[in-house]
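Chain X:
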Amino acid sequence: MIDSKISQRWLDRADYDMDTAKAMLQTGRLIYAVFMCQQSREKCFKALLAYEDKEIVPIHNLRRLAEFAAVVHELDESTLMKLDFLSSFSINSRYKEDLQQLSKGITEPVVRDFIKFSEELIKWLCQKMK
């Protein structure tokens, strides 16, 4: 049986994480803005899993979550590459010690692109739950 309360809780947290990504962008915390984009995407995939009454697997890899949610075949290669980047970046942002190396290439326009990308995918995933 589908438990819409569980999927809604995941969506609420996804929204919170997107708001946090935007707040981190405004304060110049670009690494954490990208990290929160990944977190928001992860929670949205898990909301879809809950909506479809599937097991919410304790993983953080966005491509794998898209596979579990049976939507990976609907995503183009560019989207999959961005999902892979976000998955890898989220691990590095938590454990990599060299902030300069971690932030290399993470500019304000890049972060804005990831926020837009995340919002679009979240909107698409939410449409699947209607």
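Chain Y:
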Amino acid sequence: MSKSDFTDIVETKNKTTSQTVKKDEPKKPQEYDPGWSEYILDNMSDNELIKGAPTVDGLRRATEKCFGEILQSKSEIVEVPTRQNNKCTIRHSLVIRKYSTESVIEVDGCVDVLYDKIPYPFNTHLVATADTRAEGKALRRALKIRVVTAEELQNQDEDDVMASEENMNDQQVLALNQLCKRLDVSVASFVKSQYNKVKVINDVSNMEARVLISQLSGFQRKPKSIEKKIKGYDDNWKDDFYRGS
């Protein structure tokens, strides 16, 4: 075999391997695709999620990794907290150059924070708390994702965020799915192991969903406590265990 023939074989093999790798890579969803929110969460590390909800720091990093370059990020205090109003209002503005189109977009997020709705010690730092939440809201709007940040959830009265008598919401479905995926836990098997009468995940109540998410968060701390019968995450679990709206 001549040297040129050997080189051609190597080049052809490398080209075929390269094409195979590209073919196996998952396709990046578009902003308007149903899987967009999940894609953004998939690109966040474990320490950037609290009970499946993204932190503002995590969203900021994921934005620049998956969506666009943040050209400007600034906050404006709309209402300064005083002893009379015990309230802070902040508007956070973002200017982002999207990777997909090179177009520049501007997005705002405005948040009110009330002293008596924030637990100690956060209620002694209303401006900082409002600033973080406003940035998170602006990032969520820019990304067009159906989630609430961990900062918005963990420091508020839960009754203001979600009513326990309602059914499980989209935020909770995303959080539970994200935790199961990272822990390699079957969504359907796990849910049914706790609530065996559930036919689809939409039958789970809001309060029950909170319990499930807390249990999964516990598994993150103690992964050895995961039973074998619920192991094995399935990407297609929604085909049989989810009722679309």
